[in-house]
Every structure is written in structure tokens, then in C-alpha cells.
Design brief:
It is built from 12 helices and 16 strands. The protein has helices spanning 16-33, 47-52, 81-89, 134-150, 165-170, 178-189, 193-199, 205-208, 213-223, 230-241, 303-308, 327-335, and strands spanning 37-38, 44-46, 63-66, 73-76, 99-108, 120-129, 156-161, 211-212, 248-251, 262-271, 279-287, 293-302, 318-321, 339-342, 357-360, 363-366. The protein starts with 15 loop residues before the first helix and ends with a strand.
Length: 367
């Protein structure tokens, strides 16, 4: 029998499994303090429902299989956002808006990339459903930052983007053949000035409108001659204003990778010492059973990236309790926050139990 796991899967061993659990508890606790209550969606559901719940989203990254009971095609969730949208639109459709929900659980990707080889991930997040306002977006971004702070993650930075930027400009001050919108988005996302010049030279200034938030925002305002982006830029400024002094802020208005279903706002979350994102969020649209649409905004954090980078608490302070110790002493130490590990046989040692301290006459002594 092989002990190997499939490519993209791994076991989470101590102390990293405990660190992930503490991170999850801290994030969800901070979210709960802001009114976000926990929802726990099913691991798999009907593929059709999962694929069509978020407007402009696709389920191409989902692992599918035929359910032997219903004979229908099911999909294991590659992301939990669509499931929260389903719950809000159906089981909680009667609930007064906005609905604030948090969640945490494993997700499974159909395939991975060389830069991100993991296929099984753990996701934590919050969704605010029923509002498409600057105030809603400002709350979501603020809760994400506060939740990371509560979990002890430092060096956080936020990179904002405007996912529908090209569509707004193409329909207004910078007309563009609809067939050219996606190719232009791809070239802008890749910062390919030559490719942009071939398709629509008027959009070239957008490549330069990326960088530290204030300067990038000023350049984008100067580019917005016709005022088509004014409401978005004003809203973005209000959102960023609440974060200044707490986190580094940047703006890349044409970033599209990973924001395929976001509407007017998207943001990526980074942290010092981590390659790639530790989270992502933005505004999007939920599709109801009757075809009606509802605005929402939210964020997701990637637990594995945070723990692997050493940003989560992996403290392993353990207190060895020798045999024949008065149990009351161990109880008192646990009440003080200690993790106690009791000797169960005469030959047990603190070193064997990976302990950092030993309990002697009711006192923790370092080894």
C-alpha cells in the first residue's frame, strides 16, 4: 500500500495544523465581532447550480463526478463564494438585506500551476450580500485587514483593481469593437504596451497608471477626461482612505487575472515574506433562481499560504507534567494558558514529548 498522496495534496502535520486552526479561529472571531455569522456549505453540489450562481463565473476549475444516487453530475467546490451566494439567494432569501456571512473549509482545484502546485486548499472568508455601495466595500476591506491583524499577520498590503474598467471606457469615451475588448484586457493585464498599441493606442496610459495608490489614483483621474470613471475613482479613494496608515496600498487598474466575475471593484491581499497573494476580494453579482440579480462583495483568505510563510502563530510552548503530580497543579496551569502534556509512564521525558517547560512544585520551569 502506497503512502504517497496525489499530486497537489498534502497532510498538515503539527504544529502547522494547529497554527492553521488558530488562524481560522482568529479570523472568524474578528468577522463575528462585525456581525458576520458562520455558514458551512456542503463539500459538493450539483454542477449546474454551482456554475451558474455567480454572474460571469465559470466552473471550469471544479472536479466533477457522477453521483451514484441521483445520477447527476456533481462538482466539488473549487471556491466557496458561489456556495455562499446560493445560500443567501435560497435558504436565506427571506432574510433582511444585507446578509453578512463568514465561512471556512477545504476547496479542491481541478488543476494547479507550477507557481501554485497545491490543489487542495483551505479557504476562509466573508461575504456581504445585498448592497453595492462604497460603504459595503469599505466594510469588507476593513474587516479583512482587521481579521488578519487579529490573527497576528503583519506587513499586509492591498492592491486594488477596477475589473470593468475597459468595458466602461469602451462603451463611452474610448469606443471599441466588442470583439476587441477581451484581447485588449489580456494585453493590458500582461502590461504589453506593443500589444495594446496594436489594438487600441488610446488605452496605453492605463499601463502607466499602476503603482503606489495615491500616485496611481492621480494618474487615473488625469486620464479620465470624460469623467466615465469618476464615481468609481471617488469610491475607491473613500475605501483606501480608511486604510491609510494601517497597510500599504497600491493600484493596478487593469489587473484581471483572478477577477473574472468581479464587477466594479477587486483587490488582492499580500503580506511580507509571502510569494503571491494571501487573499482576494471584490464586488460581484449573484444570480437568483428566477434570473434576478443581487449585488454582493466579499473576500477570501488562503490559509495554507499564510501558514507556510510563517506568518501564523506556530508557538509550541508545552509544559511537561511528571507522573504523580497533583492534578490540581496541571489544572491551574491550563487555566493560565499553558498546554500541559502528562507523563503516562515512568520513562517518559519532556524531550520525548517536545516540551519546552517542566512543571515542578506548581511552577513552570524552562528546560
Amino acid at each position: 500500500m502506497s503512502s504517497l498522496l496525489p499530486e497537489g495534496f498534502r497532510d498538515r502535520l503539527p504544529p502547522f495544523g494547529d497554527a492553521a486552526a488558530r488562524l481560522e479561529a482568529a479570523v472568524l472571531g474578528a468577522a463575528y465581532a462585525h456581525g458576520y455569522e458562520r455558514a458551512d456549505p456542503a463539500l459538493a453540489e450539483f454542477e449546474a447550480g454551482l456554475a451558474g450562481r455567480l454572474k460571469a463565473a465559470r466552473a471550469q476549475d471544479a472536479v466533477r463526478f457522477v453521483d451514484p444516487v441521483s445520477q447527476a453530475t456533481l462538482a466539488i467546490r473549487p471556491d466557496m463564494t458561489a456556495q455562499i451566494g446560493r445560500i443567501a439567494a435560497t435558504r436565506m432569501g427571506h432574510h433582511p438585506r444585507p446578509v453578512r456571512l463568514s465561512y471556512a473549509g477545504p476547496v479542491l482545484k481541478l488543476r494547479a500551476s507550477q507557481l501554485s502546485p497545491e490543489r487542495e486548499l483551505r479557504q476562509i472568508g466573508c461575504e456581504l450580500i445585498g448592497l453595492d455601495t462604497v460603504a459595503a466595500a469599505k466594510e469588507i476591506v476593513g474587516v479583512a485587514v482587521e481579521a488578519l491583524e487579529a490573527a497576528g499577520v503583519r506587513g499586509v498590503s492591498i492592491d486594488f483593481t477596477l475589473p470593468d474598467l475597459v468595458s466602461i471606457l469602451a462603451a463611452g469615451p474610448l469606443p471599441l469593437d466588442p470583439a476587441l475588448i477581451e484581447p485588449l484586457r489580456d494585453r493590458l493585464d500582461a502590461k504589453d504596451a506593443g500589444g495594446v498599441a496594436e489594438i487600441a493606442p488610446a488605452y496605453l496610459p492605463l499601463i502607466e497608471s499602476a503603482g503606489p495608490f495615491d500616485a496611481a489614483h492621480d494618474r487615473l483621474c488625469a486620464f479620465d477626461v470624460g469623467g466615465a470613471l469618476r464615481s468609481r475613482l471617488d469610491g475607491l479613494w473613500q475605501i483606501a482612505s480608511g486604510l491609510k496608515g494601517r497597510t500599504a496600498l497600491t493600484l493596478d487598474p487593469t489587473e484581471r487575472h483572478g477577477f473574472e466575475y468581479q464587477t466594479w471593484l477587486g483587490f488582492s491581499i499580500f503580506a511580507d515574506g509571502v510569494r503571491g497573494e494571501i487573499g482576494r476580494g471584490g464586488s460581484y453579482t449573484i444570480v437568483h433562481e428566477d434570473g434576478s440579480e443581487e449585488a454582493a462583495t466579499g473576500f477570501s483568505l488562503y490559509v495554507d499560504a499564510i501558514v507556510a510563510a510563517g506568518l501564523a502563530d506556530v508557538d509550541r510552548r508545552r509544559l511537561f507534567v511528571p507522573m504523580d503530580t497533583d492534578p490540581a497543579h496541571a489544572v491551574a496551569m491550563r487555566a493560565q494558558g499553558w498546554v500541559t502534556v502528562a507523563a503516562l509512564e515512568a520513562g517518559d521525558t519532556p524531550e520525548a514529548q517536545l516540551c519546552t517547560h517542566i512543571l515542578v512544585e506548581g511552577t513552570a520551569r524552562p528546560l
